[in-house]
């Protein structure tokens, strides 16, 4: 992994980088949003999930076939989140806003809420990346300790082990607890203040939750019985939760990334430099990872240019590395996803190792 140390730089770092990126799109005469490559793979991923659901519920193959399909379905639901929902939520799936809105609402198809996610992720996370108490994506207190500024508990010495269980239940917790907490509390988080939902947003919330119960619970129970449903449902949701959690944790909660105790500490640096310090890439040479994860292994490029589709990240990454070298700014990257996972586990273990 490259050194994350920073040297004094001019305020023009991001201006220089943005000029190169703008020139790239201008010279190539291409739009920053997704194109046919993204549309085709998204259709494949959505149809694959629909096919697997249909096979499991209405054809009910033998157990030794059903279990692998459940695992694949759980993984594919996460992939849809990375490639379709995440892109739409950032308005980068298409140059047409209505298509972005449709793709963003695939989160509702998965049981979540597109509006809550936009505030939690686009605003809280992207604006206050790795800032304690402000970045909702790293706020898992008291269950886990992700940086030195958070309270230390005796059970944290085992967090590098039990984190898998927490990641596994995170998807169901999101659908059946966190969204309802936001809804009835009247705010997405304590730092965003009260929210006023429109009539459509109220309707969307309740329709989403009811349809999730009907499609993922009632119909399968009626068709295959409650025990086969329960086993399959737990496999699917656990795999989805683990995959989503791991991918997002590898972007910010690994060795070498910077955490901020407050927003004041963060703003002492240039915004773009803070994004580089608090973010890490992994496995960027793998075309398969890029295809499956919706470019989230290019997390640095995503944080610097969240409105640009991930299909452009490999090209943009060249400019980011080049400009970082020019200005002497560290660029965090792990060569593979496995090495990033090892670093994540080591990071959790170190932060819990002094627990007594």
List keywords for this structure.
mainly alpha; 356 residues; disordered N terminus
Structural shape: globular
Low-confidence stretches: 3-10
What is the residue-mean pLDDT, rounded to a whole number?
92
Say how many strands there are: 2
Helix content: 55-70%
How many H/I helices? Answer: 15
Rounded radius of gyration (Å): 21 Å
Element-by-element helix/strand order: HHHHHHHHHHHEHHHEH
* Fraction in beta strands: under 5%
Structural class: mainly alpha
Strand order of the largest sheet: 1-2
Largest sheet: 2 strands, parallel
Give the end-to-end Cα distance, rounded to a whole number of Å. 31 Å
Please characterize this protein's 3D structure.
The protein is built from 15 helices and two strands. The chain is an all-alpha fold and 356 residues long. A two-stranded parallel sheet has the order 1-2. The longest helix has 27 residues, at 63-89. The radius of gyration is 21 Å and the shape is globular. Residues 3-10 have low confidence and may be disordered.
